[in-house]
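User: Hey, quick favor. My workstation is busy. Could you predict this chain's structure for me?
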Amino acid sequence: MHKLSAVPEPNITYQPKQYECKRAEGQSDWSGRLDQPFWKKANWTDEFVDIEGDLKPLPTKQTRVKMLWDDEYFYIGAELEDNEIWANQTERDSVIFYDNDFEVFIDADGDTHHYYEFEINALNTVWDLLLSKPYRDQGPAINGWDISGLRTAVYIDGELNNPQANNRKWSVEIAMPWSILKECSLHKRAPIAGENWRVNFSRVQWQVDIVDNQYVKRMDPATGNSFPEDNWVWSPMGIVNMHYPELWGYVIFVDEQTTEDSQQPLYITNIEQYKWLLRQLYYRQRQYASEHDRYCDQLEIIYAMLPVDIQSIARMEQLQLETTSSMFQMSIIVPDQQIRLCIRQDGWVWEEA
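Assistant: No problem, here it is.
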């Protein structure tokens, strides 16, 4: 049996971003441009921040996203301001983040398992993969998984791989078919109006120098390696790791009857708050196991590891704990709901009636 390991805990208050995704009308011209009529009704997301949120300075270059949906596709448009537009990866499913890139993460049913990752560079080269669970939970990445029917386009306001050009930005259009995305959704179907999926976006940005009229990654003299990349995201993570699906944003699929531009936190529901409480207990169980080589079988010990304000909340709830030396399951009754939420040692969250 492998040694039980701890999980680094994100340093962040639980406030995932939210976005109301409107119904699409008409067709895109697939130019990669987001100033065409197809995208006009879609609102921009908030501008991206550092992956660690307020712990780090704001990004030096603006990134923002639009989303739409119809019966066939989930549409994503991203605009990335940049005076250094370059890319080298040309083969599908190569490691796209070796270049500057734009990335999409989708957890359709919000259980933090069986989710999608997608990356694209300025050459319109893509990498799509399926993860059965996060790497922290020993989840493998399935590179052979492809988004059949995927459509993408890239527009460059400037010139690719030309440091002398007047480079301003690049933008991407992505259409992911529900026929593929529904594989990991709760009801094995596309969303319906009023439902939400957990989604996040990331931009990888490398520091570069110009050598012989080419962009090359800036090297750190102290290490002999390139400087680490910047990671800029829509919904901040509080940790340099995108594979914490519990912290991704909420994309709510709406129809025309939905109130325009709602700014109220309507979608971080009671259930979602209780999922977050279970997640904090999961972090503590993993920490305890790394120190004792077994999971804790006493809730009071786990409670004592929580911040003081969370301890009092946890003690008021109807929590249950079951353990063996190598497994645990914790559950909680959601007040005013006829459901029990559960979490286990590999981080999977589910509901029971």
